[in-house]
Request: fold
Amino acid sequence: MTEAAQVAKEEKREEKEADHHPYFRPKDAATLILVDRTAATPKVLVGKRHDKVVFMPGKFVFPGGRVDKSDNRVPVAAPIPQALEANLLKGSPKITPSRARSLAIAAIREACEETGLCLGRKSDGKAPRLEGAWRAFTEAGLLPDPSGLFLIARAITPPGRVRRFDTRFFTADASAIAHRVEGVVHAEAELVELVWVDLGSKHLADAHPMTRNVLNELEKRLATGPLSHDAPVPFFHFYGDRMQKDVLGA
Reply:
């Protein structure tokens, strides 16, 4: 089956899924794409979702999830770059700088929760004790570090879906991983398998169409050299049943 045929099949399945669900306002969410560029072909980290979860069961996805109320209050090793904040503030509906910070921090938290890979840095002096989802950072003597994040894309789930998210897709280099928590990925977890795969790998062939859209954008960015905050950031959203691709801030 060609890629175009696969996308059409997936879109038809989603249209059927949308038939019986009321309108839900999208929730802010963040996703982190970790990239390993030590080889000639970049690799990205993807996880296979459990077959019994509601949202994208059995699909290979990037770690991510909803913004938590506590994300803005978590101390960090370094602030988010001003250029990253500027990109996050583009588009509509408008958000505040504190919300922009929450989105970046949520991407780091979700990645650590779902994969056990934590982006952080040793704190200067005595680090505050973090609880809940952030306990792994405290145990490793780290504070989360969003300074190496780049915004790759933004996408809003179309109306009529069981779950709707206004997702910001971030990327970071795998060298930013400062700590690994064992036993996070297993047969009963949200992610049952975790793999580093080449861009264009067969593991990504059955990915959700939006996942493939974002991967295509990432591949374009990586092909131009070092990542930059100055690159255009695509915004995928829907008018009726048609996907629209705009550029944030354009």
In short: The chain has one domain: 31-247. The chain has five helices and twelve strands. The helical segments are 3-18, 82-89, 97-115, 135-139, 209-223. The domain at 31-247 is CATH 3.90.79.10 (Nucleoside Triphosphate Pyrophosphohydrolase).
